[in-house]
Specification:
The protein is of the alpha/beta class. The protein contains 11 helices and 9 strands. The chain has helices at 17-34, 59-70, 91-99, 115-120, 138-152, 170-181, 210-216, 238-245, 249-254, 275-278, 285-304; strands at 48-53, 74-79, 105-110, 126-132, 159-163, 185-189, 205-207, 219-222, 260-262. It has a 5-stranded parallel sheet with strand order 7-6-5-8-9, sandwiched between helices. Strands 2-1-3-4 form a 4-stranded parallel sheet. Strand 1 (48-53), helix 2 (59-70) and strand 2 form a beta-alpha-beta unit. Helix 1 packs across helix 11 (285-304), helix 2 packs across helix 11 (285-304) and helix 5 crosses helix 6.
Amino acid sequence: MPRLSVTHLLGIKYLNKQDIELIFKTADHFKEVINRPIKKVPSLRDITIANLFFENSTRTKLSFELAEKRLSATVINFSSNQSSVKKGETLIDTVANILAMKVDIIVMRHPDAGAGVFLSKHINAKIINAGDGTHEHPTQALLDSYSIREKLGTLKGKKIVLIGDILHSRVALSNIYALQLQGAKVMVCGPTTLLPKYISSLGVKVETNIKKALQWCDIANVLRVQHERMNGKYFPSIREYTQLFGINTELLNAIGKEIVIMHPGPINRGVEITSDVADSKQAIILNQVENGVAIRMAVIYLLAQQIPN
């Protein structure tokens, strides 16, 4: 059976095109499984997975937990809000205590960039990065690419624009890596203050005019303004941001072609996107949520294959 070229999923930048193809092929199988009347498979009956979330999460945490249970794994949920981290326990000590319970795979979200890489050098469990600071969010990028492939058949040559808060977005960086690996053309669009200085060095187009960006693209992936990561003011007001970069029906009608609308969630309705656009037939936002479970099942399953019996 084909195997991933990596022993952890720490970021898209560590994957190759064959890894992505293998994950998608495996996800195709699991998508068929989760649409059956009996949605569980006994694949990982002997595997224990710990979900370590040092930051708040709803969709990602639920999606991972559901994926793990669909694979029949034993699941431990850890939240730093109710843990000894509050008492000053270090990351290594926290994880060492969890590993003493014989855990095979750790799914971790952490506010610090590189936390997963750091952990992978100190412990022998498989690590899946569920988001590290403003760095990467690999499973989100994989499910986004998978959803595009499902909608358009291929990513090769497709034009995708990432709109909004690129500076604070781990989704944006992972998406750029994943889309380029698959031959897509990528543009970022947002206020200059929310575009990283290094962004053009990643080989993406940069645009600050939302209408021009939408006229260029086949797909718009609309990102949330991440107020919780901001330590200053990046634009005058929410109202002004919405006027200049918000997606609404009037704007989409004015560009004269139909494009696919995506959003990794959570949506600030009426800020970066209006409800009528988010709920329209152009949007594949709920497809992304459904595909998230299949992609995460695929990643967990493939990494579990590398665990010695």
